[in-house]
Amino acid sequence: MTSLESQIEALTTRLREVEEQLAQAQKMEAIGRLTGGIAHDFNNLLTGILGYSSLLKTFLPENGRGYEAAAYIERSARRATELTRQLLAYSRRERPTFRPVNLRKVIGEAIEILSRSANRNVEIHTDIHHPQELVSGDAGALVQALLNLGVNAADAMPGGGHLTFSTTLFVSDGEVYLNDVLVPEGPYVSICVADTGSGIPEEIRGEVFAPFFTTKAPGEGTGLGLSMVYSCVRTHGGFLRLVSSVGVGTTFQILLPVMEEPGDPDDPRADETEVPPGTETVLVVDDEEIPLNLLCDVLRSLGYTTLPAASGEEAIEILRYAPDKVDLVIVDRIMAGMDGIETLARLRAIRPTLRTILCSGTSEAGRTPSGVVPDGFDDFLQKPYERVMLARTVRSVLDARPSNN
Known about the structure:
This protein is 42% helix and 21% strand. The chain has helices spanning 3-57, 65-90, 103-117, 139-155, 225-235, 289-301, 312-321, 340-350, 387-399, and strands spanning 99-102, 122-128, 134-137, 161-172, 176-178, 181-183, 186-195, 239-245, 249-257, 281-285, 305-309, 328-332, 355-360, 379-382. Strands 2-4-7-9-8 form a 5-stranded mixed β-sheet. A 5-stranded parallel β-sheet has the order 11-10-12-13-14, with helices on both faces. A two-stranded antiparallel ribbon has the order 1-3.
């Protein structure tokens, strides 16, 4: 082969690689547009399911079957919420919220879900060491990542087998590589998800983390499971390794950096008994019936007086009629006609010191990268939300109001 032919072959190979990268980027952009487009409507529906299930629990005895059913609906809605947020994070349209995470709880939640949904012939085991080590992360995203690995493992064992979740402390000396990626020096929590299934053939191991790659039949898989696991792990500053032998089984090892200054795990649902009430008047603005009614119902259950408005124009008329009686406005970001930002400007023209909370189905609509609420709002409430989160956010904003308001 001549030098010119070699150059042409190299250029052709590079062109194919660029075309593949472009096609992949276009797929990811399509996912971003799709998830961003449906997030608002989908989260409005989840807001109603999650909000009314948590409200329903307040009317039922805790030891009754009705309370248990409402709690199950609530847990299911939370899982759907986390799935939506993971898709948004995967498409780079939502930044995950990191808090101190107890991995024992994360693994326990994933196993609880798998035990109800996986093949009954699959035995699930745990081997947990160093559970006191905390990592900084999004607990919901980590649960979903482990679920994806667990589901794939169960699918690889249709006739039954063993699925094991294990953890240990892993210390890198700065010369350790996982799948050809250097692991910086420091302590990590190692999570292994191992199965005794069919294994992954060597010729496709390099492709399993690629978006849309799947060995399943059409209609049986999206090809996003392992790519979402990889994206989640890397977003957490972690590393991922795959070890597999055909006919023996597969092990996925996840390394997550240990927090330098461990704090207490922050669970926003940790104490649902602390739901602060109030007596103020709240103007609620949303053009969707479900979240509008839910907000008003929950606020009334907490003792507040509510004034519902199905549009920005209606909210302006209400405030113009009684400017001194409204203590707080909660307004949706995306509405037909006058959106939440414009509504705020018009309301502030009537009453400049008005306290306001912005609602949205996606976090990027409400917060800047630094976490500061923009556009003059006092706080941000992300849909879907639960009764306790709404109560605390409202109380926090009202208690911070200036004395001359």
